[in-house]
Write a structure and sequence with these properties.
mainly alpha
């Protein structure tokens, strides 16, 4: 007896990974938009911008990975 079928487990992992990646992407995009007005000469602001861009790239990789898993 199995708790969850293989297909159900696949969709569960898709929802968890895809949802986390999408939320991460949106969260960092919002933070980047808010930080856009800050002084770019400040090293801390540049580090934040870099971190938000990296977070968006990581989220995008997660979303693309989930889509490729199910569509291709």
């Amino acid at each position: 007896m199995t708790i969850l079928s293989a297909r159900g487990f696949d969709w569960f992992i898709t929802a968890v990974v895809g949802g986390t990646a999408a939320a991460w992407l949106v969260y960092d995009a919002i933070n980047l938009a808010r930080a856009r007005r800050a002084d770019r000469r400040d090293p801390i602001v540049r580090d934040r911008h870099f971190g938000y861009v990296m977070g968006m790239i990581i989220g995008l990789i997660g979303v693309i990975g989930v889509l490729r898993h199910h569509l291709g």
